[in-house]
Amino acid sequence: MPSGHHFYEVDITNHESIVFINSIQVKNLKGFLWLWLNLPGIIKSVKRHSGAYECIPALVSPLQIVMVSYWYNYRELGDYYKGNIHQQFIGFVTRNPTALGMYFESFAGNKSGKYINGVFGLGKNFRRR
Fold first, then answer.
1. Which residues of the chain have pLDDT under 70?
2. Structural contact between residues 43 and 55, judged by C-beta atoms closer than 8 angstroms
3. Mean confidence (pLDDT) of the chain
4. How far is Cα 101 from Cα 96, in angstroms, rounded to an integer?
5. Residues 89 and 22: beta-carbon distance below 8 Å
6. Over the stretch 56-78, which tens digit does the pLDDT of each residue have?
7. How far is CA 33 from the centre of its chain?
8. CA distances (Å), origin 34, targets 10, 22, 26, 46, 104
9. Which 3 state secondary structure label does DSSP give 77?
């Protein structure tokens, strides 16, 4: 490895971390408009939630986004589901069932990855409060 790179692993502090992966894919014009009007607020709401310690949104195409978020535990991820932004999302999907395609997957993060030159993902698992 070239000199100057910092390569490391970390211990996960609470052993309850959750890696949550979700993707939203536009299926029609109504879904396209909803996604692009609401996506900034969705990203902000995850980043501001006290139970999330990392959020990495990615644009796959103008018709699909993927977001990986890291949560201290399932309780706090569940708390996010009860919030206003998520309830608005569920309301839209209920009223417009063909507008968006989506998937949600979650995994227990019991071991960190390897990191080079930064603190990312599960490596950020520490309590800020």
1. 1-5, 8-14, 125-129
2. yes
3. 87
4. 11
5. no
6. 999 999 999 999 999 999 999 99
7. 21
8. 39, 17, 9, 18, 19
9. helix
Percentages helix, strand, coil for the chain (3-state, rounded to 5) are: 35, 30, 35
Structure token digits, residue 47:
């980043």
Report in angstroms the alpha-carbon separations of 12 from 60, 85, 88, 124: 29, 29, 33, 9
* Residues 6+ positions from 40 with CB-CB distance below 8 Å: none
pLDDT at position 103 is 95
Q: Which residues on adjacent β-strands are paired with residue 108?
A: 18
b/e sequence 77-101, b meaning 16+ C-beta within 10 Å: beebeeeebeeebeebbeeeeebbe
Distances from the Cα of 108 to the Cα of 33, 76, 77, 112, 114, angstroms: 33, 13, 12, 11, 17
Per-residue tokens: 7: 């390569």
Distance CA 62, CA 84 (A): 25
What token pair was written down for 111?
Answer: 């071991």
What token pair was written down for 78? 């569940």
